[in-house]
Queue: 4 jobs
Job 1
Amino acid sequence: MLACRKRPPENNLCDKSDFLRELKAEIRTALDKIQQANIAPVDMAQAAIGPGISVYSRYERITDMNDNTVSVRTI
């Protein structure tokens, strides 16, 4: 099941360093919850994609130091 919602207009841009800082702050809590849910260790990488994409999708655009758009693959 896929749930979509509009992005808040005030959160449309972010630079890569701020994104990584926000991701690191939230991913630990998310991984702890996944571990408590008894997800098999072999499935942890796949399960961690959701919380990471949750942070990434908050922004219309994430930019590097040269103001180029950073894709999810390059992060």
Job 2
Amino acid sequence: MSTQYRIPVPAIPFQPPVYACHYNTKPFALDGNLDKEFWKDIPFTDAFPDIEGSIRPAPRFRTRAKMCWDAEHLYIGALLEGDEIWATLTEHDCVIFHDNDFEIFIDPDSDTQAYFEYEMNALNTTWDLLLTKAYRDNGKPVNGFEFAGMRSAVHIDGTLNQPGSQNRSWSVEVVLPFAALQECASQSRPPLPGEYYRVNFSRVQWKVDIVEKAFRKRLQENGQPLPEDNWVWAPTGVINIHYPELWAFLFFTREDKKAADFPIPEDEYRKWELRKLYYAQQAYLDENGQYTDSLDTLREVLARISPCEANRTVKDLSYQLATTPHSFEITCPGAEEGTSLSIFSDGRTSLYPS
């Protein structure tokens, strides 16, 4: 019987999407409808794949998003196609993904900790929370967090909770103030052109039947609903959205640039090499009850446990490993001379002067 690791190595390589987020000064009226002048020149993302990537079938409904910004806000719009448009939950901060929903995840400083989660259903019922760190790293959700100044709206092309061929899609608009987002940014300010956030989106879609002219979740033999589908912008290679190291790169620009004009920084590639060693350390802990102080051992573990060939080795980056039985820090040089990168046993990454 194979070992079930707490923190599986993703079954995909490090290839996050990149998006050029353009500055937008057009007048904005919040109504959930993306078919208006404000969004006209803002490009959609690619259609969302399954959270596990190409190893799973393509989603049966198309989902795309678009983003822009101004001096005070980040604007997010999403179009969720399909005729299964329903929602039941009406209480703010309830567990929205028990309905079909749209979810937003934002890590402003790309350290995989202290990041925002925002969920909404087709009734515009919302759930906003702050994650101290990923659940895999014993992170706690701060459900009492309220996104000050956040606004959202839903537009339905069809009829909510009524099956029928006239149902085509539902769309959302979310306005997020930088005054709130910057509380988790590295320099506690809005972004500057050329800087980036790490972002992901998720669409939860339950399989349903039509019973007595209403949508009902399809049940298993044990009477429980079938597992939900998870369609995301940036796949994580595991059925877990809380792998911030694989989220997309949202580059802010005030110029007429495209995603191809924004290469992923070299430090982020080096963070990924550190992250692979982190996965191996966590697996070694599962197997042995403590961390190892041997980089060679970590390489051997990684080669053995990774389901993705691209993740079975690490580049030679002159790593330094400091370990106790229950904690570790792995360091390598940063891309800029005089800097170092570290990853810690709780998953956090850090860039600092060496």
Job 3
Amino acid sequence: MAKFQTPRKADSIAVALESQIIEGLRAPGVRLDERSLAEEFGVSRTPVREAIRNLASMGLIEDLGRRGIVVAKPTAATVLDAFLVVAELEGIAARLAAQRIQPMQLQEARDANDRCATAQTVSAFNEANMSLHNAIIAGSQNRLLQDQLRIARPMTFPYRHHLTQAPGYMARSVEEHAIVIDAIAAGQTTAAQAAMTSHVNLLGEEIVGFLRTFETSLWHKRV
């Protein structure tokens, strides 16, 4: 019986830590201590280690050996590479969705964009935005593609959520979502792919611009 409890605990801890990292509650570079996490979640260190391995495989944390375990702090180039990969994969998902999406999934995407348009907080927008992208990815009806995105997307999440706070971003994103959804609804495969790829790529470029500005600011402060 006991051997079936650890994976469930590890999964719960991984989900909780993933959410905290994505929402910026545990910032890039912050150290994660196994003992403290075990106390925080009321478990032994074994499920904490398993959760850490899961998050490391997703690129959200890094094991630096003797220097400890930290929330991943990738370079601007690494973040851009991640967005480029995700943009291509989500573009393919949108193209397939234009051929395969079910009416309920299409409505989920529309409803999610409506929630994006009326969101009053960053967290509300981010939740709706995630639902929209998930509906389109599910609408591709391609399990292999979904599995690849499940691996590739997490590294981009903390930065997607940060950019939401930029002036005008949410309104522009709603417009871009609408273009993607309309193309999918019309069965326009090429247009759907191009619109989604552009949407995610542009997001990545804006994030990289922010990261470079931030890194330059830190450098000047050190000098």
Job 4
Amino acid sequence: MIFNGVLLAAMAALGLTVYQVGTSGKKDSAQEVLPLESTNETQTAKAEEEPLVDAGTSQVEADMSSMDGDDFLANKDTGDFVSENSTIDDSIDSAAGTNNLDGTNNTVDMAAAADTAVSVYTAPEINFSEDTLMEWPLHGTILIDYSMDQTTYFPTLDQYKLNPSIVVQAGEGAPVVSAVNGTVFSIEEDAQTGTTVTMELGNGYQAIYGQLTDLNISEGDTVTKGTTIGYVAAPTKYYSKEGSNLYFAMKKDGKPIDPIAYLP
């Protein structure tokens, strides 16, 4: 019995030793699979891949701040997000002419206004006829009347001759207006009539203005009735006794006609 008791005690001691050895092997195996240092390194790497969000910042704000090409600011009171690049958008709109409060485009409006102005303006009609009524190029006393049927006296020349025009007394510098719509055909210097403007009136009619200075027109211009075309000049030597005046004549198909017939 004593032998049997000793044998059982020895077997029990041997069994406990085997259990400890087995348990120790499992712990070592677990540490080999997932050591503590390896776990910490994994967590650190994961933290580097996913940046931490500051305390008090929502995940939505963090996501918005990471968006490329545009920075967003959060309004903490309303939760609305505003693009910092909105200033750039405003600049582009301004350059494009879209700064009106109603959103309309200034550039387009200006172009439309220009088109309207062009459509409103129409060139004067050049269509003179026997029924056309002109206005006086200037008001003054007629010094020498039109006369192609008989001769009339010219004081400076001290002779009688035909006169294809009317010679109207006027002070030097007096404005001269276009008697009727016309296109400037020529501007010439003439010994007798000085600076002389010939206008085409249409249908073979012409109007001639002489003794002028400081012209406001050029060859090729279309002039509206009543427009100032120039001013009375000092008289040429052929009209020194008559004094400063306007030489005004008309032609039909190259032949002189009486201007008085078309004046009020």
